[in-house]
């Protein structure tokens, strides 16, 4: 997409290693993500894609290396996780909405309860965000009354209500019916076009080709190959990348 970005990366991942017991999931991952950039991380199951996102957001501690998010060292023993998660929003495969709360209440909860922001101001912002994700008129509905795609868009609005600088998307369409995938991808594309820094783990190759500035292919905990969508899909260099693309395209 070639959006303008500053020279200094907003996320710097350096030589990150992570193991779960005897299972080494990350084997020295290094990535720079610049402000306003959209990157897609693709690869086979178990290759470490989702773990990278969870390490960025301090949901999973890593064993070695460094992750700087807008100057915050994620592995610092005195990390302020609230400060980090104010900067970094994350959307999961499952929507994780509170079923007993309305759509509007779900979006408002964190700014009011966690950040202690003024309820009236938060409500106005929440209504604007729901309109932005094309859910105007659903404010008083409960999650169980919505389709999967609508619930995922509520989850995106809820994350945006914290005013993050960076959005992480972890296979956000994998639990959706095919007909609802597009409405979620359209929302993410609009965010990217507005300059939001987005880091996505996805199996939607066509979408990655369309929105990403750079694509990273992971295998066995390593970044095997990276490049612009044009380079990556037209001329993959590594045999593992070619084999993967032959299977999924």
Reading the helices and strands in chain order gives EEEHEEHEHHHEHEHEEHH
Mean pLDDT figure: 94
Fraction of residues in β-strands: 25-35%
CATH topology of the domain at 9-93 and 164-248: Rossmann fold
Cα-atom radius of gyration: 18 Å
**How many β-strands, per DSSP?**
10
Q: What strand order characterises the main sheet?
A: 6-7-8-3-9-10
Alpha-beta classification: alpha/beta
In terms of quaternary structure, the protein is: single chain
Fraction of residues in H or I helices: 25-40%
Instruction: Supply the CATH class of the domain at 9-93 and 164-248.
Output: Alpha Beta
Largest sheet: 6 strands, mixed
How far apart, in Å, are the first and last alpha carbons?
21 Å
CATH superfamily of the domain at 9-93 and 164-248: P-loop containing nucleotide triphosphate hydrolases
Uncertain segments are 1-5
CATH architecture of the domain at 9-93 and 164-248: 3-Layer(aba) Sandwich
Bulk shape = globular
Helix tally? 9
């Amino acid at each position: 997409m070639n959006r303008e970005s500053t020279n200094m990366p907003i996320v710097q991942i350096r030589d990150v290693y992570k193991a779960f017991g005897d299972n080494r999931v990350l084997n020295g991952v290094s990535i720079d993500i610049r402000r306003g950039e959209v990157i897609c991380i693709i690869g086979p199951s178990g290759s470490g894609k989702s773990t990278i996102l969870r390490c960025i957001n301090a949901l999973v501690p890593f064993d070695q290396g460094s992750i700087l998010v807008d100057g915050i060292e994620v592995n610092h023993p005195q990390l302020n996780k609230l400060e980090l998660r104010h900067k970094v929003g994350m959307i999961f495969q499952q929507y994780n909405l509170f079923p007993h709360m309305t759509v509007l209440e779900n979006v408002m909860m964190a700014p009011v309860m966690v950040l202690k922001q003024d309820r009236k101001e938060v409500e106005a912002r929440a209504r604007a965000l729901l309109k932005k994700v094309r859910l105007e008129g659903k404010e008083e509905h409960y999650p169980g009354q919505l389709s999967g795609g609508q619930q995922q868009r509520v989850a995106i609005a809820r994350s945006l209500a914290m005013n993050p600088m960076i959005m992480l998307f972890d296979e956000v369409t994998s639990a959706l019916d095919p007909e609802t995938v597009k409405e979620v991808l359209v929302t993410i594309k609009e965010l990217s076009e507005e300059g939001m820094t987005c880091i996505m783990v996805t199996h939607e190759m066509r979408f990655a080709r369309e929105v990403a500035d750079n694509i990273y292919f992971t295998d066995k905990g390593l970044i095997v190959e990276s490049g612009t969508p044009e380079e990556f899909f037209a001329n993959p260099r590594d045999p593992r990348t070619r084999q993967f693309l032959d299977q999924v395209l």
